[in-house]
Amino acid sequence: MPMPNSSHRHRRQLRILRTRLGRLIRDIRRKIAGNAELEAVFAWPLSRADQIRSQQQRQRGWKLYSFHAPEVECIGRGKASAPYEFGVKASVVTTNARAPGGQFVLHARTLPGNPYDGHTLGAVIEATERLTGREIERAYVDKGYRGHDAPNPRRVVPMSTRDTAATMPQTRAASSSQAKNAGSSAASNASSRGAPPSRR
Questions:
Q1: pTM of the full structure
Q2: pLDDT tens across 103-132, in order?
Q3: 131-134: long-range pairs with CB below 8 Å, 24+
């Protein structure tokens, strides 16, 4: 007799859980039948339980992932180690330079519906500027914001996750050092071209 693989065991355990949940739903409805007050109290939990019992893995539309937090969504990360995460997407804006106690949070909001990151950047920048009363000179974002709808695309700098901790003074220092190195190398090349050939 062949041994069942993991997918067969998974489907068998899922059928057992659905059967037990169906029995529990029917038992509760049978015991509260005729009591209008209890029926009103159990209306929401029973509707959520019916949703969990009837939904399928690959169905289209809204799905319930958490009984106590129905706003939880499935967010595709596209990573081999963690292809999916469950929660609600959020946007957090912090200062670029670190404050004495750490980075200061300027704006935060949840983004239900799992929108594309680039489509939320313009509204987030506008809300942050309206909240702080200051214009954002430059925004450092990860590469998920490519194709953003910011009003001034030149001030948005896509960076990798490892480089997002770099501050603006560090970036300016790196740029100035590169310019100095380029200038010194150009000066050395020009001096070498202008020098007379050595005699032996």
A1: 0.57
A2: 788 889 988 888 888 888 888 888 988 998
A3: 131/106, 131/107, 132/106, 132/107
